[in-house]
Design goal:
Helices cover 47% and strands 15% of the residues. It has 8 helices and 9 strands. The radius of gyration is 20 Å and the shape is globular. The chain binds NADP nicotinamide-adenine-dinucleotide phosphate.
Length: 285
């Protein structure tokens, strides 16, 4: 981008493009080098997690994952199976999918009717840690459908899980979430964040990832184009506005096993990179 020919036939347009490219690079550079939270604290959670894992395992805690058939959900399930941290992992969705992890006795898939969640209170009872990775898009579901899934389903299921004993909820929100904002997507996520805060979980961890870098199975052409264009950005400014789903999953797990976490915490994109322990920001990673 930066070696664009500014002396071409249309100098005005060339200069404008050069200016935009430099401004964008500057903006991304600022984002890349801005620390939103306490890096030492995040690194201590990421690094300390290895020691905590054995103790955590001995606690024989149970987990529930919502949205496990999605991209982040599947990365999380893979990692949970690899790390073997929970005595039971309940996977709740609207359909059963073929899953290697299904062969493991501690993993169980449960189908629920999200329009009648009340009828499935049992499925949401008896879990210690919940990972909420549910969501749709406006393009897929329309405005009302999007609100139904990303707001109503998320909050109703969280409330039922809380009533059923859930202690630590990990909620996947988004970069820019703002309950006072104008844009449907970020406003809805912000509203959910606020509503979850007043449910008073023993621990609530909110993740605000940027664009998820994943080879999505489902066809979403606009998202695929955006991701393609963001590949060089992710190379030069890896923590500014993008994140691989595996990093989100690993950050959630590192946080879940940590004994350092606060009762309510919000992790911005860069924080999630650091918390994952695979970003290279921590001395030992
Ligand atoms: N894409 C991004 O770049 C990005 C960035 C930041 C945050 N986020 C947020 O992060 C979360 C996870 O994203 P993702 O891309 O991993 O999700 P995803 O691949 O789209 O998966 C979404 C999950 O929600 C379930 N779901 C969707 N509509 C449903 C409905 N009507 N009823 C029941 N379940 C439904 C899906 O089930 P099925 O498999 O049955 O459809 C799937 O398990 C979402 O909340 C998303 O908004 C995404």
């Amino acid at each position: 981008m930066l070696w664009f020919n500014c002396d071409g036939l249309l100098p005005g347009i060339s200069i404008a493009i050069c200016f935009l490219a430099v401004s964008l690079a500057g903006f991304l550079g600022v984002l890349e080098h801005t620390t939103f939270s306490d890096v030492d604290y995040l690194c201590s959670m990421a690094e300390g997690s290895a020691n905590n894992r054995e103790m955590f395992r001995q606690g024989k805690k149970t987990a529930v994952v919502l949205g496990y058939t999605g991209e982040t959900g599947q990365a999380l399930v893979k990692q949970l199976a690899k790390e073997n941290l929970f005595s039971k992992v309940t996977l709740i969705g609207r359909r059963i999918i073929p899953l290697n992890e299904s062969e493991r006795p501690e993993f169980e898939q449960k189908v629920v009717d999200f329009e009648n969640l009340e009828e499935h209170r049992d499925a949401f009872s008896g879990h210690d840690v919940g990972f909420w990775c549910l969501g749709t898009t406006r393009a897929k579901a329309g405005v009302e459908g999007f609100k139904r899934v990303d707001h109503d389903y998320v909050l109703k299921s969280a409330e039922m899980a809380k009533a059923g004993g859930l202690k630590h909820l990990h909620f996947m929100s988004t970069m820019g979430a703002d309950h006072r904002g104008m844009a449907l997507y970020t406003k809805t996520k912000g509203q959910v964040e606020e509503a979850l805060k007043v449910m008073h979980f023993a621990r609530l961890s909110i993740y605000r990832p940027g664009v998820l870098m994943v080879n999505r199975q489902e066809s979403r052409p606009m998202e695929a184009i955006a991701r393609f264009l963001l590949v060089p950005v992710a190379k030069v400014f890896p923590t500014a506005i993008t994140i691989p789903v595996e990093s989100v999953a690993q950050a959630m797990i590192n946080n879940a096993v940590s004994d350092k976490g606060k009762s309510v915490e919000t992790f911005e994109n860069k924080d999630i990179h650091v918390l994952s322990g695979i970003s290279g920001h921590c001395p030992k990673s």
